[in-house]
Amino acid sequence: MPEDEEARLVRLQALQILASEPEPLFDRLVALAAEACGVPIALLSLVDADRQWFKAKVGLPGVQETPRAHAFCAHAIGSQSLFEVQDATADDRFNRNPLVVGPPDIRFYSGAPLTVGEGSAVGTLCVIDQSPRQMTEAQRRTLTMLAAIASDALDMRRSLVERTLTQARRHAAELAATEARFRALVEQQSEIVSLAKPCGELVYVNEAYARHHGLSVASLVGTNLLDHVPPTERAAVRGQLDQVLNTRQRCSADSSVMTPCGQLRHFSWTHSVQRDDKGALLLHSVGRDIHERVMAEAALREQESFLDRTGRVAGVGGWQFDPASGRITWSAQTRRIHEVPDDYQPQLESAIQFYAPEARAQVERAVIQALADGTPWDLELPLVTATGRRIWVRAVGEAEYQGGAVVRLVGAFQDITERRLLQERLAANERFLRKLTDSLPVRIAYVDAERRYRFLNDAHCRRFGVPREQALGHTLAELRGQPSPEVDAAFDAAFRGRMQRFEFDDMVEGHHRRIEGQLIPDIDDSGAVVGVFKTGMDITERSRMEQALRDLSATLRSVAEAIPACIAVVGADGCYRFVNTSYERWIGMGRDAIVGWPVDVLLGDTDFARAEPDAPERA
């Protein structure tokens, strides 16, 4: 057992090669070793904790691994040079070994260590004979050089796998962050949003939709949206939905929504058609409460997750090209990527023809350049498989030299279609979000931890009077040109993790407007506020109506107080809602003590029976 056994096993695992499929490069190396040394058996053996596993072999069919306790290679990995046993039956270390006294009847063994990094080797390139013998010096040098090539190939293979994994993880993280931001932006809005099948079955509702109905998201998904429409309006709503589905044109209409407690709320709806990732039609509906003048953006349907798949290497295949014979060798994984039979034998011309027409010239230039001066390549290109399926692949290649001349090209091949689809889907999501938010009259923005704008819709850009490109990256103070203590204080509170809702006056296209602002903290998994979602809605008309209502109420109260008669207002529940001063004096109590109490309690049964309308009139 080598002294650095633990570190050696770590280096072995880092290669990510154990139990992998055969690859032409390593198969060719063991074949060359057997031929150069004139032996029937050659192995590329990797020594694990309790076994030796064969990445490549000749002359040993049906055997993929043996116990480490029986392995000659377990002795060779501790050596810095060739480990040679000329006659195992005469060697006390091996004369009782099961591999000597039984098949494959080893007599001669010579193994060159495979070293990656520093320390003991991870395995060997070894040759075996069933007769005692002794190698020549030339054979020893050849075996040593082939082992060095194999070690370099293992390092190259490891680097390729690590780069692929790193790139996949980065794209997965970018997609996760973007989807989380989109979801937070949509779910925090007050508009109610749904996605439904043509039959009306809900497949998605946002949190606002669930809150309005007093139910959970899970309990609403799977129900029919018409179940929440009053029976008297269902035929009209069904007709509106059919019109949208048949014409593919957006439709706006008003209808009532029925809550579980039986209350009706009148909503203004915008219906349109979308398609899911399989191309099936979906009805997209956005509802706005007319009474409260609340508008917010619509929701994106949750995107299909690719995180698990992009976190793994999607199968790396190997290949090599012999310019002298024109022969190309593909590994099994490379054939699977091309969707060709296991016995398919490509030629250079046919291999290039698999690439999409627009990519073939680029591949041809890369091959010609590598054959001319050894320039390596690493390309991402479209490819059409044997079944006609269009995919994206990553092709990596480099030249091998012998005597200063290029003798072959070797490389790796990987299907990266899923990653490309992720990129395209991410770009589509960004386009959809911008189009969606730009269509709303609500100001929508996102401010990062440095209080700089990272997203603004058109309505927000119009507030500053500058194009989006000039606003992005600037702070609110830089764009507005004058201080606003009220807004700054709200931002301070939002960056401390508290949602803020406030109103302020603003100048919009030369007119004074009343704006209702909302700041929603963007909190990461650690609890830190990394940004703030910002919305602003014009509530000028609502504010005017509310002020008029307050003025009217004040006038009515003044009139009621001026009348010498006793006046009281009783609600439908039989409780006092208002009394004037004369009524206070008559009953002998202040209005704070009267309002909210039932009439029959304060008047008593006798006076209440005398004052109560008779039964027929109540009916």
UniProtKB/TrEMBL annotation:
Signal peptide: none annotated. Coiled coil: none annotated. Residues 178-248, 429-479 form the PAS domain. It holds the Pfam family PAS_4. PROSITE patterns: PAC, PAS. InterPro entries: GAF (IPR003018), GAF-like_dom_sf (IPR029016), PAC (IPR001610), PAS (IPR000014), PAS-assoc_C (IPR000700), PAS-like_dom_sf (IPR035965), PAS_4 (IPR013656), PAS_fold_3 (IPR013655). Residues 377-428, 498-551 form the PAC domain. NCBIfam families: sensory_box. This is PAS domain S-box protein.
